[in-house]
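Task: sequence design from structure.
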């Protein structure tokens, strides 16, 4: 074995990619049938054995990688498929394995010797989708009810400070981090959020930047509605009908779903709250103002979502929509 081969983490990367496939299959199969449990249990055992061997090989050269492999091996060996129902959004053993996958994948993505893609786990999570939609309606409601930029900015700053404070606290206290990710936000969290800044914090930053930059009220409402409803629509429609890919894992169906749902949401909101948002306008004048904003919001949001594979889409979608709609609002 050459020195370069000895230092290459590519074998570990290949194993982690295999673990990703196992977790995705576990999520999709929803282990309800005993016939499914047996082959999946065998895969879990083989993965655990491979992880144990790799951990021994890297114990001296890369102890952090070896420790992570050892943790995953132990949890794979303890995985009880008679109790795990294929979900990665609860606090069962599969959720813990998914978090450790994200931890080791985060390490390996920065390694030049690892040439295999290690995508983020984004399991189906209808509770997260519902929270996303509710948050869009809530934020749009605030902007509709409060027509004072300074007040809205103070609210946004308070929310952002609270979320960033939690981020700092959970980085300093691993026990608090586990409690927040597993217990408090377990139903809506992604496994990767145990290791990175969560989406809600990025959303707070985006709102502060949007308001501080002077984006018009209608553009702000269009931005939060587009994110709140368009993003979940893209995920749900893309998973169901997204066979034709546009960019990476993003599909044509998902992008079209994002565009259509975002346009409809903005048009409907502006129609319902026209007396508050667009007072004293006839139908033609209302349409001339509302329709272009809705179309621009849907298009800008869909493009931002499509290419946000390495950026947080709660940030990129919100700012892209607000910025583009500011020109027509």
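Answer:
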């Amino acid at each position: 074995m050459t020195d370069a081969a000895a230092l290459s983490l590519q074998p570990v990367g290949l194993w982690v990619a295999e673990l990703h496939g196992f977790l995705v299959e576990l999520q999709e199969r929803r282990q309800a049938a005993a016939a499914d449990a047996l082959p999946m249990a065998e895969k879990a055992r083989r993965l655990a054995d491979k992880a144990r061997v790799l951990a021994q090989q890297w114990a001296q050269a890369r102890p952090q990688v070896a420790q992570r492999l050892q943790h995953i091996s132990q949890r794979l060996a303890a995985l009880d498929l008679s109790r795990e129902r294929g979900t990665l959004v609860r606090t069962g053993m599969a959720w813990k394995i998914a978090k450790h996958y994200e931890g080791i994948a985060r390490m390996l993505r920065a390694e030049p010797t690892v040439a295999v893609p290690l995508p983020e786990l984004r399991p189906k999570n209808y509770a997260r989708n519902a929270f996303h939609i509710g948050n869009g309606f809530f934020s749009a409601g605030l902007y509709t009810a409060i027509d004072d930029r300074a007040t809205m900015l103070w609210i946004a700053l308070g929310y952002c400070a609270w979320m960033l404070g939690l981020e700092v606290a959970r980085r300093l206290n691993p026990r608090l981090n586990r409690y927040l990710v597993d217990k408090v936000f377990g139903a809506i969290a992604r496994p990767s959020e145990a290791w990175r800044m969560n989406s809600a914090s990025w959303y707070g930053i985006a709102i502060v930047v949007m308001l501080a930059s002077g984006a018009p009220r209608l553009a702000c409402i269009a931005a939060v509605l587009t994110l709140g409803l368009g993003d979940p629509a893209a995920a749900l429609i893309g998973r169901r009908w997204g066979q034709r890919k546009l960019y990476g894992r993003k599909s044509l169906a998902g992008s079209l779903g994002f565009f259509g749902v975002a346009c409809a949401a903005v048009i409907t909101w502006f129609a319902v709250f026209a007396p508050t948002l667009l007072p004293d306008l006839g139908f033609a004048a209302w349409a001339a103002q509302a329709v272009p904003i809705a179309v621009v919001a849907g298009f800008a949001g869909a493009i931002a979502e499509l290419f946000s594979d390495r950026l947080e889409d709660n940030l990129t979608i919100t700012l892209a929509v607000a910025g583009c709609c500011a020109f027509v609002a």
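Confidence is low (pLDDT under 50) at residues 1-6, 31-35.
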